[in-house]
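Tokens in:
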């Protein structure tokens, strides 16, 4: 997804978590080692084995203050970058952490423009129900699930937990990885956040995938007892996943943490740490490059697609991307996750426009296949999807014109 539906991922995160705490880097416990992915299983190619650690993390420390230097040395050795300056760490109990994360009082907050746009587009595409309050659902999910964040503006860490438990130590390793990334490459990039495409999402997968990789190596270096304890803490953090959380919200927030580690490990295998470092300087720009790393390594970019005509004054234009296409197809009748991934791989480029219509909104998307041979397969899948949603229409590619679908809700 891009910064809108486009922000679907970045807007859901940027308009809530990032607006609340000015943070681009978080640790989400249900995505840690040993915790099952909460959404539909990703394609096998999206997940890979983990490289064995090269060092041991040392004896568990009696306090956070004692452990931070240990964590920094671990990050430096495994990430291959030296810290240029100290990183302040704030430890908060559960209540104080939620207040800091969400910016109380959340009940009186006005939804941001980005989140309002994302909500209207998700409902138009029938990815969430009309009755869902996206802002409230996101606050509840993040309040329960986020266990730490690095704030690139203040250059500091905030961690949920005041004792050096196995999971808190693991979170510190993850967040300190963000700190050293920021010191060397800068991970706060407003220009990407403002772009109406997938650049912000793609870059987030780079720095989150890198941090998850180092966190995994720390987890694997702990004793088996500490590993089990860390997994138990992660699963119980914040009381678990809130009941009634929209499935698509889990998938959107999970995406960088799921595809990012495999993307980074593939780069490391292709060219070592230097190749990983180069991805921070020249990051991917689409979800397609994250899902199929060979597209990134080969320099395959999205095809340029003109925005379609809106039936009224448009309030947004952006792209769905391959990940957005997957979210649609996995909900179409008769499509398994494997089939959705296979058809998603035919994505070559798209561009959509959104406008208000009655009490809801409409989204119209022009989309092209990666190559002409895939057009018929993509068209058939989108026709099936359009037939399955109220007010859905589809026009196949014809005479050089892109395929087009419209959905309202």
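Residues out:
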């Amino acid at each position: 997804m891009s910064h809108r539906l486009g922000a679907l991922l970045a807007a859901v995160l940027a308009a809530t978590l990032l607006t609340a705490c000015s943070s681009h880097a978080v640790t989400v416990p249900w995505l840690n080692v040993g915790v099952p992915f909460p959404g539909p299983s990703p394609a096998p190619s999206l997940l890979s084995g983990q490289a064995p650690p090269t060092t041991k993390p040392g004896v568990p420390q009696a306090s956070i203050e004692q452990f931070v230097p240990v964590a920094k040395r671990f990050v430096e050795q495994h990430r291959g970058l030296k810290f240029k300056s100290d990183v302040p760490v704030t430890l908060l109990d559960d209540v104080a952490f939620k207040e800091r994360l969400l910016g109380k009082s959340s009940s009186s907050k006005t939804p941001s423009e980005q989140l309002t746009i994302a909500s209207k587009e998700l409902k138009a595409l029938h990815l969430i129900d009309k009755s869902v309050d996206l802002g409230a659902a996101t606050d509840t999910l993040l309040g329960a699930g986020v266990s730490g964040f690095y704030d690139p503006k203040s250059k500091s860490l905030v961690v949920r937990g005041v004792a050096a438990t196995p999971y808190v130590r693991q979170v510190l390793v993850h967040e300190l990885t963000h700190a050293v990334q920021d010191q060397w490459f800068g991970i706060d990039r407003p220009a990407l956040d403002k772009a109406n495409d997938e650049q912000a999402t793609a870059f987030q997968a780079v720095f989150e995938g890198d941090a998850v990789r180092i966190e995994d190596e720390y987890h694997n270096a702990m004793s088996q007892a500490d590993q089990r304890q860390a997994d138990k803490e992660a699963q119980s953090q914040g009381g678990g996943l809130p009941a009634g959380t929209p499935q698509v919200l889990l998938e959107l927030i999970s995406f960088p943490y799921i595809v990012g580690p495999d993307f980074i490990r593939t780069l490391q295998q292709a060219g070592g740490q230097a190749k990983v470092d180069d991805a921070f300087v020249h990051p991917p720009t689409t979800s397609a490059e994250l899902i199929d790393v060979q597209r990134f390594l080969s320099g395959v970019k999205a095809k340029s697609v003109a925005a379609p005509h809106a039936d009224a004054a448009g309030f947004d234009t952006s792209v769905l991307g391959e990940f957005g296409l997957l979210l649609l197809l996995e909900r179409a009748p008769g499509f398994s996750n494997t089939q959705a991934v296979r058809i998603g791989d035919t994505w070559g480029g798209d561009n959509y426009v959104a406008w208000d219509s009655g009490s809801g909104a409409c989204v119209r998307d022009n989309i092209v296949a990666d190559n002409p041979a895939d057009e018929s397969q993509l068209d058939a899948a989108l026709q099936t999807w359009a037939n399955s949603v109220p007010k859905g229409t589809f026009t196949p590619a014809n005479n050089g014109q892109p395929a087009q679908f419209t959905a309202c809700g």
